[in-house]
Amino acid sequence: MKSKNYTKYILWGFAAAVLSMLAVIVCFWKLGVYPFGEYSVLTNDCYIQYIDFFRYLKEVMNGSAHIGYSFSKSLGGSLVALFGYYLSSPFNLLLYFFDINELETFILIITILKVGLCGFTFSLFISHRLENLKPVFVVIVSLAYAFTQYNVGQLSNISWLDGVYMLPIILWGIWRYVSEKKKGMLYVSIGLSIVFNWYTGYMNCLFAVIYFLYEQIRWNYKYQQLMLKKIVKQFFCFCGIELLGVMLSCAFFIPVVFGQSSGRSILDEGIFSFATNGSLLNIYRGFMIGTPNMGMTVSDSTITLFCGVLLLISAGYYFFSKSIKNFDKICTSVLVAVMIFSEFFKPLENIWCGFKFPAAFKFRFAYIVIFVIIFIAAQSLEQFDKIDSKIFCKIAGINIIIFLIFDFICPFDSIVLWIQIGLLLFYGIAVFIGLSDGKYRRICFGLIMVVFYSEILANSYWVTSEVYRKPAGEYAAYAEEQEKLVASIRTYDETSFYRMEQNKNRDKREYDNSFFANESLAYGYSGIQQYSSSYDKKTSDFIASMGYCKGIFPTFYHEPILTSDSLLGVRYVMSSKAYYGLEHVSNMQEHNGKSVYFNPYALSLGFLVNENALEPIVSGDQFDIRTILEDNPFEFQNKVYSAILGEDVRLYEPVGAEYVYDETTEKAVYTINSVGNENMIYGYTRSTIDGIPMDINGEYSCYYRSAWANMGIYQIGIASEENQVIFNVKGLGEEVRRKSLQAQREIAEGIRDDENSEPWIDSVFYMLNMDTFERVISKLQEQSYQPQVFEDGYVKGTYNAKTDGWLMLTIPNDENWKVIVNGIEVQVKDGVNTFMTVPVKIGENQIELIYHVKGISLGIVVSSLSIIIFVALSVVERRKRKII
């Protein structure tokens, strides 16, 4: 390639990058995002998850947090998988230059830079792949890729954007491999894509195989080498290079794999069950400008592939172009079918998502499908001078008719529909004039560029117009106060180990559901809850079984549960209200509407347990309403404490409640009569309805959640008084009320166990026997263990045992812990399903725990082996070429 051509490609790339970044800036300006307005860039998962992870990463850079293991991740866990999924982007290195209070600015800047890089890398790819594509169309298709539906919809999932800008580099590498037999770019780009974000890296690698076959088969046909044996050989050679690229990443990737698979199944159950995402015909509706789909919920089955009206016409024209060979059209049709059906059929979608169900943000690989459409359109535009303007205009007209038919079946927004029709007419006419009269061509190109740019800006605004609504600076103000609150507790209590939690989230909604479950990571304290895709199933199962929530992803802490908190060492609760059993720490100032409460029953890190604790304890499905009497968290806790003590312990006893459903007020009312003592009453509810307003003893409590932000045990009152819990179904919708009435009648008629009549709600109420609880806690405290050193990945201390036995530490057991007692490495077991339980001897036991990140050594060996093999192959091939 000549130097001047290389310079031209770079200039086009920079033009695409600058215009892409400008598009983001204009979009944020129009939306009023700071610094262009009053709203924050933080939204969706960026607000719920990423901001806390970035705050944690900043602490790692400052040297005050550990990247391998953290006790701030739920009850403690590996951070390698979380880092690989959320934080391994090279752009995150820029965080070093930002203050911890400037995280919103940092996110804004890297979002703009990543989108710009998407335009740049696509421009480089398309310029080399389609060398005759005119500069104006290079910029247009690059803008379409950088700032089209997927990227606009995923601005809150900025870690996925690394896969978007790496895809064109990988495909450029494939083209060089096919056309020039050069494999270096392919090899390196595969490895880097996995390192930058392994999740999208996996998707890119999967598509690379499909794209290679597409390009290689077309290449072989062009040069009359289309032989099955030859293609099979070429395919396996390519797979070998791709495998070497994956191996190149293994120094990083293997530890991530071990961390990601901790306690979790490789495949989600039922991922291959046949199902579809909406109607196949409705996919075409997704080409309408401004279609507001980002796959936020599992039920959202709208597939949107908008990438510009011009490219929609151009992609359609590809299949009617006389200058494109029929064989190429057949290959392209197969490629399109594979990618469209991958989104349409859910089993295929699940494979693309890593053999997992996408819990939210469906169609996570849509950027690849959109790439295919843009690439097809670009191939049409490369032959611009040969375009039959009449056919092009006919395709535009056919699209108008199709959208009008869809509007008749299910109406679009009328303004958007006519804008779409106007764009179809404009592009048809502009291309017709540009091809008909050469003296107007530059004017037409200029108008096409301006209109296309305006189009993608309008689309971005419509797609995101309701997304950015949080006030700018609100998070920074909250974070500053939260830092003060956590610091005050640390100053008050300098003990090496204790946990703390909170009942109030930072979103300031009318219900406090603590949905922001990563604040322990953000502020560096040991907590319970956690929300990330890199969770430990064993830990999450235990948290749910103890009554904090019902689901294992995410795990939440909605309010204190005295018995659960005490077992796990939750000594302080940052709370918006008082709870029975906790003592208000009056000399600590309130911050963010939260005061500090002390739990006098909180246990230390470890305590001596009976060997019964080593046996598995069964817990049921926390969402199954029919089994609520048998497998509720109260019964599970009784089993846990009984196993720990080696005796039958009943901390909780059920109390009766009178249930009445008032059809007039549409309220489910539970009344618990006084039993004449000062013990505490707790409740636990399962329901098929999510978000029911709940009143306790005449006061509003919360929206009781049974789905995503699911809740568990709630505190009601004292047993010496009459207590009442009310669930208000009114206003939740006619269908909900109808079903609830029907279910209530079925329960009243005694047919609750009928397989066709699942109850809509059921609750159990238990009394905590405080005398028994205090006796149990006192006994456990007698032989407790408080370490002298408690740091991320390292624990050390002395334990004086009165007898040989088992010391259970409330640290989730993980095979990567090395446990040394009195200088000898020992084997530990799971206590009460979850915790590290260490054998100890009578007398003094010097205990040391060291965490080793699994897979680093193996990963380095594999990466080194990859480099050696690749270099050796390159040397051999170079010598062969010299001989020839």
Can you describe what's shown?
The chain is α+β, with helices and mostly antiparallel strands. Among the domains are: 159-261, no CATH class; 785-852. It has 26 helices and 25 strands. A five-stranded antiparallel β-sheet has the order 17-7-20-24-23. It has a five-stranded antiparallel β-sheet with strand order 9-10-15-12-13, with no helix packed on it. A five-stranded antiparallel β-sheet has the order 18-19-25-21-22, with no helix packed on it. A hairpin with a 2-residue loop joins strand 12 (692-696) and strand 13. Helix 10 (228-248) packs across helix 26 and helix 13 (326-344) packs antiparallel against helix 15 (366-382). The protein is globular. 48% of the residues are buried. Residues 752-756 have low confidence and may be disordered.
Question: Quick recap of the structure?
Answer:
The chain is an alpha+beta fold and 884 residues long.
